[in-house]
Design brief:
The complex is a heterodimer of chains A (113) and B (116). With 113 residues, chain A is mostly beta strands. Chain A has no helices and 11 strands. Classes of the chains: A mainly beta (113), B mainly beta (116). At the A-B interface, strand 4, strand 5, strand 9 and strand 10 of A face strand 5, strand 6 and strand 10 of B.
């Protein structure tokens, strides 16, 4: 049972480059989320999706885009990478109801130089 | 907007002893859920325990228990018989129970060290 799988685990980008962080879950969860974790801080929500074809902004969406074409996959796109986007990125998923916990991937450490 | 505050950036405990991590939150809602997540050096976020606000009984999971004080908006985590594997960052998180509520709001975390 893989749970939530994120790729890559590490990546270094140059300023202005673009890339896509991949996230896949095999638990048939409706909801999926992208968070970022800056040093010494808790996680902040970037984008979320409540089902295929439906996405919405979280607390810190600027500089990112998402899509959700299938229930399983929820990629996060960085356009024109900036040093402020250096962070650890976590993907998570959950069932529909609020009381169900979110299950997290192992994170992607991204450095923009 | 909801906020979550963890006032202890770092804590330490002797192996086999008990430690309590503090968390307070600010909300005007009556229906919500609270969580403690553990983040070891491997970086993985692991759910430790969950509490529904409508339940008066404090949640317990093996050596982990919470002291949920709804009126005081306090949600502390007690770890009994601490083990070396408990060393990690611990995050308190809040989630609204309302329809259309999806976001987890996290505190800044408490780094727990376990001394052999």
């Amino acid at each position: 049972n893989a749970g939530v799988t994120q790729t890559p685990k590490f990546r270094i980008l140059k300023i202005g480059q673009s890339m896509t962080l991949q996230c896949a879950q095999d638990m048939n969860h409706n909801y999926m989320y992208w968070y970022r974790q800056d040093p010494g801080m808790g996680l902040k929500l970037i984008y979320y999706s409540v089902g295929a074809g439906i996405t919405d902004k979280g607390e810190v969406p600027n500089g990112y885009n998402v899509s959700r074409s299938t229930t399983e996959d929820f990629p996060l796109r960085l356009e024109l990478a900036a040093p402020s986007q250096t962070s650890v990125y976590f993907c998570a998923s959950s069932y529909r109801v609020s009381r169900q916990p979110q299950h997290f991937g192992d994170g992607t450490r991204l450095s923009i130089l | 907007a909801q906020t979550v505050t963890q006032s202890q950036p770092e804590m330490s405990v002797q192996e086999a002893e008990t430690v309590t991590l503090s968390c307070t939150y600010d909300t005007s809602e009556s229906d919500y859920y609270l969580f403690w997540y553990k983040q070891p050096p491997s970086r993985q976020m692991i759910l430790v325990i969950r509490q529904e606000a409508y339940k008066q009984q404090n949640a317990t999971e093996n050596r982990f228990s919470v002291n949920f004080q709804k009126a005081a908006k306090s949600f502390s985590l007690k770890i009994s018989d601490s083990q070396l594997g408990d060393a990690a960052m611990y995050f308190c998180a809040y989630r609204s129970g309302g329809a259309g509520s999806y976001q987890l709001t996290f505190g800044k975390g408490t780094k727990l060290s376990v001394i052999p």
